[in-house]
Design goal:
There is one protein chain. The chain is α+β, with helices and mostly antiparallel strands and 623 residues long. It has 20 helices and 18 strands. The protein has 3 domains: 165 residues, no CATH class; 286 residues, no CATH class; 105 residues, no CATH class.
Length: 623
């Protein structure tokens, strides 16, 4: 017999949840078709697919996953197989046992969300999916209204949350992560900085409002004009104007003391670089700080990462390498001619270049006209419009043409202070590129930002507002406050859950050890209180039902019927119909309600008390 209540289909659909953002479109479509097919089966519009069709679909699903991923069986490939297996199981499930197995698969599928995202929205989605799956299990035990099934599911999950919290706090942290298999590809929709800078690369990125990082500063927040979030340093440019890294710097052995400190929550960007404010002065455990002022992580950042950050407004040291002035022979000939007309030392050349941008009719835009021919000359003398990477690349070429060491730095500029928690939120729309140059060898690398010569408001407000692209200039106050509250909640989740490291666990255990007697006593009182409350609730319900049944038997005894204590309500109802037919309608109705409450699994204290009051009212009035 086909048996697929809506709760079962809802459990699978809810477990898939946010996977629609990460899985290929064909996987989502295949699962949707399977659920719709089963829904049509339950309504009698389609038959269940025969076994040969199901086996063919399973083989096709396996072949599609293999064709997508090849021989690399990573976590995303396994998750795709699990999603497809859930859909196929729904198509063959007929017995109650099959339905239980489908719900168990839904539990596992919901847990795979953590492989792709660990933010608060993913956790809320998983929790909702677990509630729905538990309600689906409850629907298999008895026929109840859907609200009652949902209440049972939510109540079971609510009772399990304290145990989950205790397990989270008590189970030792794993330093290497929970799983060892890698993700075979970046999740769909993930954006971030690349390890190259070319015209248009950051402009495309800056049209995304996705979260890049959050920073909780210890103490005073630096001035907004110092909110340069450093990530990547590029030292080489090719004939197409693309900046990349070619050389490998040495580690920075004696960095200056820190001026600012805080904690960074970095979103996955699938590169091995950590983002720091201005110039980092120390690397967190597991990372390395090089002489270019970059912090390199041990592996690409594929998950949300929380780490300590210390930085200062200093100049990284210059190694004296003449390679910092090299240019491809055929790149930017007209720009070289322009630079050759400028007189003076490095400081004068740099000021002349910035003045050329400020007074040359350049325009700051996310949608510049495409450049034909030489990328630098076309921007400098023809289009004269572009985004930050256009200006940074052009300035670096001009400085190198004057034999001044220069390089391009990519990261973020600006951010938004959360009014609830005080942390700084930086989004992909804050992506930025600037230049570092050696104008005085004794002072090392100095920051030059040509974009500010064209759009000085860039450092004073969000990037999207500066160019009119992403965020509205006048956001409704209510919507703005809700966004702030959600951002604060997600930041708190990252701090207390994702950043609950082994070291923090040890500190918490040490603190609890000092208060163990008080904590243990409070825990015992809490557990006993919950147990006593549950016992009293069950006892009150049972006492009311027993008293109600006793009232009926006493009244029947006064009417001349013998009612032994061992006799059940059905037998008693049949005897009432035979011996007291005048009272049979209302006595039978009350005994039926008693039977449903006593043995139907839907009893509660209020219903039992109401039944007892009605029986007393009826028996007293008739007596």
């Amino acid at each position: 017999m086909a048996f697929a209540p809506a709760w079962i289909l809802g459990a699978v659909a809810g477990a898939y949840g946010l996977h629609v953002l990460w899985q290929p479109l064909w996987v989502s479509m295949a699962l949707a078709i399977a659920l719709l097919w089963r829904m049509a089966v339950d309504r009698g519009r389609l038959p269940l697919p025969p076994r040969i069709v199901r086996w063919t679909l399973a083989a096709a699903a396996m072949a599609a996953v293999v064709a997508t991923h090849g021989r690399t069986f990573a976590l995303d490939a396994g998750t795709e197989l699990l999603c497809l297996a859930a859909g196929l199981k729904v198509l063959e499930a007929q017995s109650r046992r099959d339905m239980v197995l489908v719900v168990l698969v839904a539990y596992v599928l919901a847990a795979t969300h953590v492989l792709f995202a660990q933010h608060l929205a993913a956790a809320a989605s998983m929790l909702a999916s677990v509630v729905v799956s538990t309600a689906a299990l409850a629907s298999l035990t008895a026929h109840r209204p859907w609200r009652e099934d949902l209440r049972v599911g939510a109540w079971v999950v609510l009772q399990a949350l304290p145990l989950g919290l205790l397990a989270f706090v008590a189970i030792p942290r794993l330093s290497a992560g929970v799983v060892g298999l890698p993700l075979g590809r970046a999740p769909q929709g993930v954006t971030g900085l690349a390890e190259t800078v070319q015209p248009g690369s950051i402009g495309r990125l800056a049209q995304s409002s996705e979260l890049a990082l959050r920073v909780a500063m210890d103490g005073e927040i630096p001035p907004r004009t110092d909110w340069y979030w450093r990530a990547i340093v590029l030292d080489s440019v090719d004939a197409d104007g693309v900046w990349t890294q070619r050389r490998t710097p040495m580690l920075w052995q004696d960095p200056p003391p820190a001026r600012w400190q805080g904690r960074v929550t970095l979103e996955p960007h699938h590169l091995p670089w950590l983002v720091s404010l201005d110039v980092p002065t120390a690397a967190p455990p597991g990372a390395r700080l090089d002489q270019w002022g970059r912090v390199r992580w041990s592996q690409p950042v594929r998950d949300r990462l929380v780490y300590a950050c210390s930085s200062a407004s200093v100049s990284p040291p210059w190694d004296g390498d003449p390679g910092w002035t090299m240019l491809p022979p055929r790149l930017a000939p007209r720009t070289r001619q322009l630079v050759a007309t400028w007189q003076g030392g490095p400081e004068a050349v740099a000021q002349a270049a910035l003045a050329f941008f400020a007074q040359g009719g350049f325009r700051y835009t996310l949608d510049p006209v495409a450049v034909t021919g030489d990328p630098v000359d076309g921007f400098m003398f023809e289009t004269r419009e572009g985004f930050c990477e256009h200006y940074a690349a052009a300035l670096a070429v001009m400085l190198r043409a004057a034999r001044i060491p220069a390089r391009v730095v990519a990261g973020y500029l600006g951010g938004e202070v959360n009014a609830v928690t005080g942390h700084v939120t930086v989004r992909q729309s804050d992506a930025h590129a600037w230049v570092e140059a050696v104008l005085d060898p004794t002072r090392g690398w100095q920051r030059l930002d040509p974009t500010l010569a064209v759009a000085p408001e860039r450092a004073l407000r969000a990037l999207a507002q500066g160019v009119g692209a992403i965020r509205p200039r006048l956001e409704p106050v209510g919507l703005h406050w809700l966004r702030m509250v959600w951002d604060a909640a997600d930041h708190t989740w990252s701090h207390w859950v994702l950043d609950f490291t082994a070291e923090r666990q040890r500190r918490l255990a040490a603190a609890l050890a000092k208060r163990l007697p008080v904590g243990a006593a409070a825990g015992v009182v809490l557990v006993l209180g919950v147990q006593v409350a549950g016992w009293w609730r069950r006892r009150r319900r049972t006492d009311d039902l027993a008293a109600a049944y006793a009232d009926v038997r006493r009244w029947l005894g006064r009417q001349g019927m013998h009612c032994p204590a061992w006799e059940g309500p059905r037998s008693l109802r049949r005897r009432v119909e035979a011996e007291l037919p005048a009272a049979a309608p209302w006595v039978g109705e009350l005994l039926g309600r008693y039977e449903l409450l006593r043995y139907g699994g839907s009893a509660d204290a209020a219903a039992a008390a109401q039944l007892r009051r009605e029986i007393r009212r009826r028996t007293r009035r008739i007596s």
